[in-house]
Amino acid sequence: MCHVLILAAGKGTRMKSALPKVLHRVAGAPMIDYVLAASASLGAATTTVVVGHQADALRAALGAHPDLRFVLQEPQLGTAHAVRQAAPLLAGLGGTLVVLSGDVPLLSPDTLRTLVARHEEARAAATLLTAVVDDPTGYGRVLRDGAEVAAIVEHRDASPAERAVREINAGIYAFDLGPLFPALDEIASDNSQQEYYLPDLVGIYRRAGRRVIAIPVERAEETLGINTRAELAAMSARVWQQRREALMASGVTLEDPATTYLDAGVSVGPDSVIHPGVHLLGRTRIGARAVIHGGVRIVDSELSDDVKVLDHCVIVGARVADGASVGPFAHLRPGSDLGAGSRVGNFVELKKTHLGAGSKASHLAYLGDATIGEQVNIGAGTITCNYDGERKHPTIIEDGVFIGSDSQLVAPVRIGRGAYVAAGSSITKDVPEGALGIARGRQENKEGWARLKKLKQMTEKKS
């Protein structure tokens, strides 16, 4: 049986932030989310998070993970002290406890599964994940006794020969739960920080004749932690680049990969082309042969095949069917649904609106809470007046309708199939099928009015 404990209580002093360090976002997601996703591959019986700094904020942020358990470390007195806080939940249980840091987002599921498998095969009391790095400065060195770990020596305490060792402790462990908590009680805080450190278990276990082994990761980058804003930015860049490369390998063209930003849940079909400065976020799905032009932001939306999105559009929580066109400078808000071959042009905003197949709103319109049929033309400056100050109301525009420019449709209202609305109308009543709706003041021309106005102005100036 396997259990997971994630250490996330630290303040992250060098981040200089009131936000818990593990909630800072790496390539669009909190760094702890990556650790939770990797650990989920273990199928652990329990997963516990040690919280401390801004504990309530961290619990709230992880509310989407209902199976998580939390323990409080207050004050924060080192890694061994953090693990000890989980004793009420874990002491007396059998199996393996995997201890992870919440700030190591590149750790892979395969590495964790290998760690647990090797630990259990060796029947070790403790198994350390290690990395061999070019520059080990500042890290604890792993000193070996054959296959087993003899000691972990911190950089400041290491001799010149020990500092030459390039294998470092990654701070990721697998422990046999049986002897763990009694051994933790033996760790002292006689160090410069007066804290209790997990690496001290190596000496305790060695003196007790228990096995401690180390497993080096194949890719040292998996063990990289984040302690500063600069490291956060570098980690995001690394993760984004991995996603870009995977997308290009799947048959998608990124015209400027460095300015294309993708969340982990995004998918794009083959032969699609992404222009510079595009953000594809959340659970966005884009079909084949789509073209997404520059400066576009798409969130939690579904775009089908052959869709074209022109420059500087924002699309959030929307659906766009095959062959539709959006933009430039259009805004599709949540609940928008564009039919096949439809068009939403420049400076058009949709909210909770269905635009039927082949229909178009080419420019300067607001369409909210509307159901619009097929082959409808929405003229420039059209507004569905959906809000009366207290409630939202629907507008229904049936197939084949023509809405003239600068029209206001005051909801609730229905425009019947094949009807016309004259330009400049404020429609407050239903327009029957095939009818022409006109609702505007009668025009009156006053002959000579401008000349008389000028004469009056001249007279007033002379006086």
Description:
- With 463 residues, this protein is of the alpha/beta class.
- The chain folds into 2 domains: 222 residues, Alpha-Beta Complex (Spore Coat Polysaccharide Biosynthesis Protein SpsA, Chain A); 196 residues, Hexapeptide repeat proteins (UDP N-Acetylglucosamine Acyltransferase, domain 1, 3 Solenoid), CATH 2.160.10.10.
- The radius of gyration is 32 Å and the shape is elongated.
Which fold name corresponds to the CATH topology of the largest domain?
A: Spore Coat Polysaccharide Biosynthesis Protein SpsA, Chain A
- Mean pLDDT, to the nearest integer, reads 95
Cα(first) to Cα(last) distance is 101 Å
How large is the count of helical segments?
A: 10
Helix percentage = 10-25%
Largest sheet: number of strands, sense, barrel closure:
16 strands, parallel
Number of domains: 2
By oligomeric state, this entry counts as single chain
Query: Which homologous superfamily in CATH is the superfamily of the largest domain?
Result: Spore Coat Polysaccharide Biosynthesis Protein SpsA, Chain A
Shape: elongated
Question: How big a fraction of the residues is strand?
Answer: 25-35%
Indicate the CATH class of the largest domain.
Alpha Beta
The CATH architecture name of the largest domain reads: Alpha-Beta Complex
Radius of gyration: 32 Å
Count of β-strands: 39
State the low-pLDDT regions, or none. none
Summarize the SSE layout with pairings.
Blueprint lengths: L1 E6 L17 E2 L2 E2 H10 L5 E6 L3 H7 L7 E4 L6 H6 L2 H4 L5 E6 L7 H14 L3 E7 L8 E5 L2 E6 L6 H4 L3 E10 H8 L16 H7 L4 E5 L12 H21 L3 E2 L5 E3 L4 E2 L4 E2 L3 E4 L3 E2 L4 E2 L4 E3 L2 E2 L4 E2 L4 E3 L2 E2 L4 E2 L4 E2 L4 E2 L4 E9 L2 E2 L4 E9 L1 E3 L4 E2 L4 E3 L9 E3 L4 E2 L4 E3 L2 E3 L4 E2 L4 E2 L8 E2 L11 H14 L1
Parallel strand pairs: 1-4, 1-6, 4-5, 7-11, 12-15, 13-16, 14-17, 15-18, 16-19, 17-20, 18-21, 19-22, 20-23, 21-24, 22-25, 23-26, 24-27, 25-27, 26-28, 27-29, 28-30, 29-31, 30-33, 31-34, 32-35, 33-36, 34-37, 35-38, 37-39
Antiparallel strand pairs: 2-3, 6-10, 7-10, 8-9
